[in-house]
């Protein structure tokens, strides 16, 4: 048996069979804390990938926005043009973080 074969057997035996469900559950409890926007974005992206979410859907964008710090979300919502797609929201949160005192 080759090393790659052993590795494949090991991974198959110990892989998290509920990876998507675990990511979904963690996503439901994810919150932005103490102004740590970069950690929130990175964690959100990771969990969205593991859960199989398409980041360009309205529901995924809504999940992203619902747990931003209230002041940051408010600053974005008062902009002349609201972000629409996920990458626009990320850019907007990073720009507003510069103006928003966390």
Percent range for β-strand residues: under 5%
Poorly predicted regions:
none
Which class best fits the helix and strand makeup? mainly alpha
Q: How many domains make up the 3D coordinates?
A: 1
Total of helices:
6
Number of strands: 0
Distance between the termini: 56 Å
Order of helices and strands, N to C?
HHHHHH
Largest pleated sheet: none
What is the approximate shape? elongated
Give a short synopsis of this structure.
The protein is mainly alpha-helical and 102 residues long. The protein has 6 helices and no strands. It has one domain (18-99).
Structure, described:
16% of the residues are buried. This protein has one domain. The chain is elongated, with a radius of gyration of 18 Å. It has six helices and no strands. It is an all-alpha fold and 102 residues long.
Defining traits:
102 residues, mainly alpha, 68% helix
List the SSEs and their pairings.
Layout lengths: L2 H12 L4 H11 L7 H15 L6 H9 L3 H8 L8 H14 L3
Helix pairs in contact: 2-3, 5-6
